[in-house]
Amino acid sequence: xxxxxxxxxxxxxxxxxxxxxxxxxxxx
Length: 28
Hints:
Distance between the termini: 41 Å
Shape: rod-shaped
Radius of gyration: 12 Å
Mean pLDDT: 80
Helix content: over 70%
Low-confidence stretches: none
Strand content: under 5%
Structural class: mainly alpha
């Protein structure tokens, strides 16, 4: 379960980072 949690957390962080980049590009 720890591995699944870590992997899911990593995916969430990656998704958040991508969304931030896209939002910043759209804003610019």
